[in-house]
Amino acid sequence: MKKFLLVLAACICLLGGTAQAHVLIADNQRRTGAVLHITPDDDPIAGQPSTIALSIQDGDITEKTHAFRLHIKSDQEHEGDVPLQIIGGTATASYVFPVRGVYTLTLTAEPLSGQGRTVIFEHAQRVSRGETGSGSIVSPLWARFGLVASATGFLVIGFIVFNKRKVLTAYADERKF
Prior knowledge:
By secondary structure, the protein is of the alpha+beta class.
């Protein structure tokens, strides 16, 4: 029996298909859970289409009882609502993440009857492969200040050395450098 289980476990591990990564998330009130899956393997590629699927684990939240809305916002101010296809309690959308970055995905399910609670799921998704965007990089203020201070310091030292070059040459001749 033990050999059979070992062989079965080895077959399952060796014959496994493609990786299927899922993320478990909870709504903003921590009452309802959902399974989020983004192709490919929860590591989308910027500039290429991805499929976002969010399966809500509460059977009372369906397309018949709630209106769903998916809003995507990036750290680079790309923002907008994405059209959804709802089947039961699963919301599916196709989306192209425009550039690398961190995106906030917010799925809102509002009751159609006006009674009940609004359920909000939020997830931060990192996109680290694909298009890099415009290529404009904003440097932080401390880096600019450091660059200006360093350049000013080198100019002051150069000015002092240039003005004291005769004294420095005489000192070097005395010491025989």
